[in-house]
Inverse folding.
C-alpha cells in the first residue's frame, strides 16, 4: 500500500536559520514522484519542489532542497535561511500507481522573529 | 499564464441541495484532479481525468458525488444531495503531460459549507 508519513505536527525555527521537515514514504512501485507543497493561512496550495524516483541528484529550488534518501524511503524538505513568510503548513506528497497522489498529514512550521 | 481557476470560491448551502463546483485547468494540461481537504481526513484524491476521461474514481466517497469533464477546459464536481459532512475545501489541480512534468498545480479551492 502507498503511504506518506509526516511525523512532526508542528515545528519552530528561528528566522534566518535552516529547518528540515521530515517525510517518509512507502510504495512498492519503482517509478514514483515526491512533492512538497506549502499551504499558507490563506489556503492555497503552492508547489515547492519535486523529486522523481530515478533522479540521482537531490532537487533544489531556491531556498528549498529535497534530501532524497531512496534506501531509507525518505524525502525531507530543507528550507534554508527561514523567513517569516515561510510560516505555513507543509505537505509531502507521493505520486505512485499511475497518477494517484497521496498526501501526508502535514507539518505546521512557525518562524520566529 | 492563468493558473487553475475554480468557482465559486465559497459556497454555503442547505442539506439536501445540489452543489456544483467548477474548474478550468491550465491550458494544455491533460490531467485534472479533484481533491477534498478536511481537518479530520486531510487531503484526499477524489477522482482524476486524463484527456477528459475519468481514470480513477476510487476516492469518490459515495454515489452522491459525481464528476464530469466534457472538454479539455472544464470540469465539474457535483454533490446531490449534499450533507453537512460534505463541508470541506475542494481543490482542483491540473498537470501537463510528458516526461519531467509530473507536478500538479492547484486552484485556489472552493470552501463548501453545508448547513
Amino acid at each position: 500500500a502507498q503511504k506518506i508519513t509526516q511525523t512532526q505536527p508542528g515545528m519552530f525555527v528561528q528566522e534566518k536559520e535552516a529547518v528540515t521537515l521530515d517525510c517518509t514514504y512507502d510504495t512498492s512501485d519503482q517509478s514514483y514522484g515526491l512533492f512538497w507543497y506549502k499551504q499558507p493561512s490563506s489556503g492555497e496550495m503552492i508547489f515547492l519542489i519535486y523529486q522523481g524516483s530515478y533522479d540521482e541528484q537531490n532537487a533544489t529550488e531556491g531556498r528549498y532542497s529535497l534530501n532524497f534518501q531512496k534506501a531509507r524511503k525518505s524525502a525531507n524538505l530543507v528550507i534554508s535561511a527561514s523567513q517569516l513568510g515561510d510560516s505555513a503548513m507543509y505537505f509531502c506528497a507521493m505520486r505512485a500507481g499511475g497518477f494517484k497522489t497521496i498526501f501526508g498529514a502535514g507539518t505546521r512550521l512557525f518562524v520566529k522573529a | 499564464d492563468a493558473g487553475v481557476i475554480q468557482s465559486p470560491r465559497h459556497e454555503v448551502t442547505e442539506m439536501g441541495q445540489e452543489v456544483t463546483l467548477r474548474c478550468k485547468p491550465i491550458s494544455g494540461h491533460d490531467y485534472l484532479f479533484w481533491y477534498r481537504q478536511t481537518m479530520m481526513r486531510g487531503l484526499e484524491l477524489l477522482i482524476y481525468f486524463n484527456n477528459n476521461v475519468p481514470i480513477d474514481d476510487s476516492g469518490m466517497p459515495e454515489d452522491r458525488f459525481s464528476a464530469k469533464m466534457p472538454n479539455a477546459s472544464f470540469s465539474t464536481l457535483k454533490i446531490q444531495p449534499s450533507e453537512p459532512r460534505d463541508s470541506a475545501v475542494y481543490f482542483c489541480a491540473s498537470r501537463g503531460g510528458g516526461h519531467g512534468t509530473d507536478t500538479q498545480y492547484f486552484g485556489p479551492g472552493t470552501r463548501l459549507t453545508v448547513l
Notes: The longest strand of chain A covers residues 88-95. The mean pLDDT of chain A is 94. Chain A is about 0% helix and 50% strand.
